[in-house]
Design goal:
124 residues, mainly beta, four-stranded antiparallel β-sheet, 1 helix, 9 strands, 5% helix
Length: 124
């Protein structure tokens, strides 16, 4: 019996990868439990990179959620849009450019915490 279920990529880096297909291909996913022990449900819980460049949260939605919207649709898809696309990595419609790597990364709670001193901390 294996020590953990899922993929090494998901276990060690809490990430899942896709490959850009070019203009007109806005939807990527779904994000699966094979890569995440607890699959993120909100856009605020993730980061998306194309070709190692972080994509603005206004340029995509995840699982039906986007900035200011927390109503999930349970698709677990990343859907890019044309809100200020980075033309180095995205087509005019917001689609990731063809053959560029897309990396979906879960933001762990421990990564959102700042230790002030050994007795105090705060969540970001």
């Amino acid at each position: 019996m294996p020590l953990f279920q899922g993929t090494q990529q998901g276990y060690y880096s809490q990430t899942q990868g896709f490959t850009g297909l070019g203009a007109g291909n806005l939807t990527y996913g779904p994000v699966t439990t094979a890569f995440f022990p607890t699959r993120p449900t909100q856009q605020s819980e993730i980061r998306v990179f194309i070709n190692e460049i972080e994509v603005s949260k206004n340029s995509y939605s995840y699982n039906g959620t986007s900035p200011g919207d927390d109503v999930v649709d349970n698709s677990y898809n990343i859907v890019f849009n044309n809100n200020n696309p980075n033309t180095d990595i995205q087509a005019a419609d917001g689609s990731p450019l063809a053959n560029l790597p897309i990396l979906f990364q879960e933001i762990l709670q421990t990564e959102s915490m700042v230790i002030i001193n050994m007795y105090h901390w705060k969540m970001l």
